[in-house]
Fold these 4 entries.
Entry 1:
Amino acid sequence: SLAPQDAALQFRLGKLYVTLRLHGEALTPFERAIRAAQTGSALEGEAQLALGKALTELGRGKEARRPLERAAFLRPDDVSVDYFLGMGALLTGERPRLIKHLGRFAQRGQRPDQLVVALQVLADAHEAEGQTDLALAALQRLADLDPRNVVARALVARRRAALRGLPETLAAARVAARAPGADAGAHYALGSLYSDWPGPGHGAAAIAAFGSAAALAPRDQAPALAQARELARAGRIPEARGLLLQRLQRDPGGLLQRYSKLPARDLRREALAKGLSRVGDFDQAAKVLAGLAEASPSAYGKRALLARRAQVLLGAGKRAQAW
């Protein structure tokens, strides 16, 4: 082992393992750093937090609680401690503790990626506890993080319909979409409600609403993909295919998967490939996936994309081409 008595060195070693996503390997260096650090020091607080985070990443929420609570004592102003205590409570099924910590984090947290996860989990927990208004408030906050995020706003509308009833939610969504200056999110949310709850004329209404959203947000791919899906459901396959091919040719920038670490352009093209396979254009879908695999800098990503391409071709009965 490397200088087990050197707290700073052990802490840096543990951080290196975390950077490499080797959380299991990071545990021993963090534990050694805690033992070697001066009790109550800033370094002990950092090491306790790092150990708790690593344990949480490994799904060991019960074990993570002790170092995280010590970190909370030593680092009272560090809001990320509440985030990991809340996620640890999610792992152990302690809903009241989850609500306490993630609720606290939602009030003070700054990192958008963590806030998105925290608010989604918090909404689920409030809903499970029968706290409908709090669940909707968490979802609304999720949508407010990025008003242009049409998918988040549709999620709020869907959950409101599930919790409050479709007629009330659909009526409000219609009013919002018809209001002067209504944006893409209002139309996308309305289309999502029509799509999720089939009824007389709902299919056509969903197509129209998603089309309006796509026109208002031409750089966001989600509305166009949703419109193509509804066209395919209605049996209008040539129109759906044409729309998807049009988007593939343009491949604009957009907001899809804002918080993902993967290249946004690749994610958009992968989503288009999925849409093309749904409307029966297997050759074009396979071509897109093959191009993505060839350009992928990661061997793992390349294998995953080629596997998806093979699945598309096998689904089309083209076994020889799949391999």
Entry 2:
Amino acid sequence: KGKATNEDIEAIDGNKNGTYDILVVSQAVQTQGFENAQQALDTAFGPITVDNNPWKKNGEDLNGTPVFPVMVSTADELVAAIAAGGDVYLTDDIDIGEEAIVIAKDNEVTLNLNGKKLTGANDSVDSCYMIDNKGKLTINGDGVIDFASTCDASGSIGDGYYTITNTGDLTINGGVIKNSSNDGWLVDGMGKIATAIDHKAGNLTINDGTIESTYRSLRVAPFGGNVVAEINGGKFVGQVWVQSLNGSKTSVLTVNGGEYGPVGRDGSSIFVDNSDGKATAVINDGIFNTKIGANGLTEFVKGGTFATQDAYDKTNPALFAAVNTVTVK
């Protein structure tokens, strides 16, 4: 502990009127769903600093309007909190049933899983989804989002089950994003495809977490507009599929890390379909438990580690960049 200097005293005289301006922040939060009161406070508010407080978030001024996180423990509370936007914390496991959650185009939500489980089972006749992000959605913390669709598995190959569909800005920093639906494609090659994240337009960043499905962990395809996806880490259980469509829309995937392995019919950890010339990918790093595949794209694998010699040997040599840092465990 040191002594305050004259400069320190002057610093707390914010309006320079000769008096001390001391701000006291009082915090309160329900402890239900947390191990103790301190964990609840830390989870809800984080450390109070000059750049993080109810009036300022991540250094950005909130224009004098204090913003506090919302704690939810029921489906109704969750839907209302997401519609309002802001920071939302789960304090209990929640089953939303057949109701889909929609983040509107002009809305911004940070969903903190807080070690809890969020489940749903949409039975829409056509494409089925649990969360539809059209705005800006960030997912933080440990916990699980699990979609087990009750839709009929039959149907055209264009239909699917999606835990999250994205046409906005989506960032995954943790948690398990899972699709537990029965996969029709695995049954007869023509039914609905189970996918954890369907990235159809906008931007996707995955920094950590587990993306898991009974078939595809992630699809990057511009059904709603140009798509850009960046993977910096995480574990992918189920194939990562990248494609573009006939027309002007493009798909771009950059892989800087993560661990990959398919389930089901296709043996590729990552597959890029560039048959119409508008899908691109760059793989700089990652761990690949099986081969990497592509159609119409070459020399895009610049680095990474294959878990087995077999996975490396089954990857078309034309996919490796002329200068690369690829290794085999």
Entry 3:
Amino acid sequence: LLFILLTLSGLVTAAIALLSLVWSPGSLLMLVGILMLSNVLMTLQAMRLRRLYVGVQTLAITVFVGLLAGAHIGHYALPIEHLMEWATLIPALVGVALLLLHKVQMPNATTLRQSLADLMQHMPNMLSATAVMNLFTNALPLFLASILIPRDLGLFRVATALIQAASSVFPVSTQAVLVAFNREGEGAPKLYASLAPFALLYFSAAALVLMLGAYAIPHFASYITLAACLPMYYYAVLAERFLTSQHALRTLRITNLAVCVVALLGLLWVRTLYDAMLHYAAGMALYAGVLSLIIAARGQGARNTVWLIMLCPLAVAFAASHPW
């Protein structure tokens, strides 16, 4: 899986490099780092190496904070784009090394070619069912590269990476949740009804702890502004897994494509870091809210969940406009 994903990333990078001849998407090295890191994390998750998954994400944040603190203490200038390049490339390369130590082997040419052919065949369906998550976790920084200044782009990338990393601390991994939903069969709605409220409360508490941490250490407050997105981010992941187990892929694809269109149109109004954070929060809230209503309409969830989800972007707007 790792080598297949890296091959696809190479193709994407080559396409972006050609596109950069007529439009500047930002740092290509940063793009390579983001793609490699995403591939490593997906491979670790697929192999159920959860500790390594959390470790690599923690390393990415640690490298960023360490370099930032070193530049501040040493009184030397470190451009944010260079900071982001190191903060993505170092954990990505460490992750590749860890996977190789776990006996991940390069497939032969025939296997690689067949796997790529199968992946290309199923990719449209797979991407359309998870388009919103792909947009907000991977593609959005690329679109914002031509809008935000490098410092704000780096800060936004770290803030969103923190959301992804924090979502991994739930006692049950998302892969295990999907397996459990599929295994339960007709009992999946009952399992979802138990997991969804607990996940919302769990991540609401986690978001509160992070916000209090920002109050205690104001220097890092900007990086924790999006912490209020944690409940709806994980809820959206949980709802995706549930609808997939219920074979509602057509509904999921339509929802993803519709929300992506709205999110891309919303980029026309993004001018500052504050706008970008509101865009992220509003887009995730829209997606999680629509999924909540879809599940409620199927008689498998509570409609009042959507009200808690809608509070998240309001909390982000308040935190972003009222510095600690």
Entry 4:
Amino acid sequence: EFRRVLFRSLDALPAIGQTVEITATELAGKSTADRAAMYAAGTRLLKVVNGDTEVLLGLDADGSTEWLGSNKPVRNLLDNSDFTNPVNQRGATGAINTQGSYPIDRWFFDKSHAGVSAGIDANNRYFYMANNAAVDGAWCSITHKVPAAKIAHTGKYTFVLHEKIIAPADVLIMIDENSSPFFMQRTTFTPQNGYIAFSFEITALPTANISFYIYASKGITVSFDWAALYEGSYTTDTLPPYTPKGYAAELAECQRYYQACATLQLPIKNPDVDTNNIFQNSVQFFETMRIAPTINAVVGNSEYGTITIVGTTKQGFHWRVTADAAESKYVFLSNWTA
């Protein structure tokens, strides 16, 4: 809110130097020396216009700029976007090459052929995708789905990837809606100054998830340390500074879709134990899930019998076991996916 108030009060700012209004295209065409010359001529603030998105930049003597505000809400609509400290509830390690898997939470890996992989590097500092397939036309991709409820307005949005290791690699980004497609855009990028910034327009509010596909074709390796989706039309010169949400906040968002409990020990002492040795109890989820999830539960000791899941809600579930004999504990492995 401070950033928005700062921008709205632009006209009331003290006279600290000339404010110049400029389009994003014009700014992109100016070199660092050109911008330094503007400062020398008295310019201190740049009001950069890109369609309906306006950004205020402070201009320094060396031609560098400082992002001061925007007329758009500045919030990242992606989950688990900080690849330097990602949520990884499934515990994936190293190079993941299994089709249909999650190298980290909320980012789905797919491929067409062998010889491709994705994952977090050994030092846990960036996300990478490598296509070393031997077959021409081979591809690999990671996908992130944004719930329709997060898209509050029609208009321009900007999807951003920041490269950890700068490489002249083209990346294909495709956006569509899972049901009743209302738009699909495919664009190939060469990163500029380490950024891929892709602006697109939503002309009607979505009714289902919007999927962002990041493709890498044969021979390409790409690596990113963060990603973002902002409301508004930004360029690499006008992007808001990336601010991590923090691990706790990211985990809470991810657990709306998936929660893992590697080893769960639940007491089976219950007044309802009957002559058939039926034991039962309830589990409350760590976070309320977006919908009642699918529960995957495996009995830890086969002699205890079979677990039955009943009464699943977004907040938790009830389980029931028919065992051969009363035990003080009942152990099973479990996770749940919404």
